[in-house]
Sequence to fold (240 residues):
Amino acid sequence: MRHDLSTRATEARELMDDPAADIGMLEHTYRRFRLVNALVSRPGLLYRREIRPRARRGPIRILDIGAGGGDVCRMIAARLRRAGLDAEITALDADERAIRWAGDHDDGAGIRYRCAFAADLVAAGEKYDVVFSNHVLHHLTTAELDGLLRDSEALVGVGGVVVHRDIARTRFAYALYDAATWVFSGTLFRGSFIREDGLISIRRSYTPTELASLVPSGWTVRFGLPSRLELRWDKKARHA
Ligand SMILES: C[S@@+](CC[C@H](N)C(=O)[O-])C[C@H]1O[C@@H](n2cnc3c(N)ncnc32)[C@H](O)[C@@H]1O
Fold:
């Protein structure tokens, strides 16, 4: 089926967001996020550009909003450990099923797992050096996106940064993901929502122009390969 990608498919809902979703399939989806993220999300870039330089100046605090299965946090924790750098990492998700699964699969990474919204951390006065998310923006309504950006700004200390990363909605991304996941639909991705939800996610995602038109001033939107969006905000001293 050829979908119209000229506008966001906001009416389409990811199966994993359904509270009644099959728990076995959901957990297999969290398990497979690791592979998908390693292939498309380029978490090493986030580590090298934003996390390592700050951690080299001293211990830092990192927050992952909408951490899902927690694999990006675990990858960052492993890299920091190998580099002998110190950080406290919090994986936050609004879905207790994700937090339970991620906590059960910490594998000694030492990450703090919390089932909460970013607004709860703002209310608690928490501050971080790096706040990020991956594949969360397209899940949100416009009002929720605005709330997330305001909360992210409030959660960052001076010298810190917010980086929200997501898919960019392009025909290329859809065709590539469709082909790649079709090949593995009977093996690696069988019994998970990876293929179906990934295609819905691309249809729900923003183009760079759409996202740039929605964000408050001070935020920058960047397009990256293979079909990625990066939304960034630096906390300069003037924001203190
Ligand atoms: C597609 S998953 C991405 C998980 C992970 N970041 C990754 O890249 O694999 C989106 C996650 O965002 C979570 N989420 C959606 N809206 C949220 C919000 N407002 N606050 C916190 N988590 C949220 C969902 O529960 C889900 O686990």
In short: The mean pLDDT is 96.
